[in-house]
Amino acid sequence: MTQVKLSGLTKRFDEKSEPAVDRLDIEIESGKLTALLGPSGCGKTTTMKMIAGLLRPTDGDILFDGSSIVGIAPEDRGAVMVFQNYLLFPYMSVADNIGFGLKMRGVSRSEIRTRVRDMLDLVQMPGFEERRPKQLSGGQQQRIALARALIVQPNVLLLDEPLSNLDAHLRDEMRELISGIQTELGITTVFVTHDQEEAVVLADKIALLFEGRLQQFDVPDAFYETPGTVDIAKFFGGTNFIPGRCEDGRITTAIGRFRAPHTAVDRGEAVLSIRPEAVELGGGGGNSVRGRIRSHVYVGRYARFRVMIGEVEIEVITDPGQVKKLSDGDEVSVRFDPDKIWILGPAADGKDGRADSDSARQPAG
Ligand SMILES: Nc1ncnc2c1ncn2[C@@H]1O[C@H](COP(=O)(O)OP(=O)(O)O)[C@@H](O)[C@H]1O
Ligand SMILES: [Mg+2]
Questions:
Q1: From the CA of 160, how far away is ligand 1's center (Å)?
Q2: N or C: which end of the chain has fewer CB within 10 A?
Q3: 170 near 139, Cβ under 8 Å?
Q4: Superfamily for 4-221?
Q5: What is the pLDDT of residues 157-170, one digit of tens each?
């Protein structure tokens, strides 16, 4: 299979505005699924189109197995792109849609027929040869678009938000299908999505983009456990942020001083982040402070508490048994396990991570 390397890859649509894609350096591992993740407009589709050869980079390079492919025509790159809105030929049968790429390459009719059948089996739609696209559901059309891409046996598969037009139930099904096919064929795949959960479930590695720039390129867990910045942590969501200053493996905040050996910054202005499920209620010990239960909900498999520590509200997720022991208004010991604290640099927007976080809000007034 093929390793894809983006090197200083840049796209400017016009000279005056900021680049849509800004000096991307990413090494996409051969045979793995890499997610290109980021909010709408961050440059995901533009990046994919450059890899596919549908857009020319303004600067930088794209290498397949170490060789530049920027000067090579799209059809000779061995990369195929599946678009968000399928783009099937409406007046052609399913079989003709899937076989189109082979027909262009002059493959014989009988071989096309066999390979179309194999592809329909692969996407779990055997017997659909004679249907027309408009007789198919969105999920089925997406499967046909995938079959049409895979039939030419590409080295690199580029999927641009393939699940975003499907409803939740179909999305799960299609996600599993894509994951299964990708593993079975071992094809180098770049999967674009704006949904961090989708990226985490599917990808071997995630490249997170904001405004055309690479923020972090890492395995999925790392975005939860060791995000590089507050903005990255916020994008992944659900974390408590408490601003402070750090020095020598400790952070001083408005609610106390905590031991915190794991940090993205060494000293100075910083933000303590801890996930709700990593906060311990009751017990006490080192790194604990006094808090008061503000509210709680019981969600069956777990319970979610909102706890005030001084003026700072944090979210805590515990096993449901805690609901029997703790009531709203109770005073409680709150412990931050030093190994589960992650210290970040201050937010780029200067709001120290607190202002628009769901989980750690300052109460009004
Ligand atoms: N053909 C184009 N001409 C001018 N600007 C474009 C063009 N295509 C995309 N852009 C701009 O480039 C940025 C990135 O777009 P895109 O790659 O489509 O983002 P994403 O796929 O992440 O939503 C956006 O600001 C978009 O408006
Ligand atoms: Mg897009």
A1: 13
A2: C
A3: yes
A4: P-loop containing nucleotide triphosphate hydrolases (3.40.50.300)
A5: 999 999 888 888 88
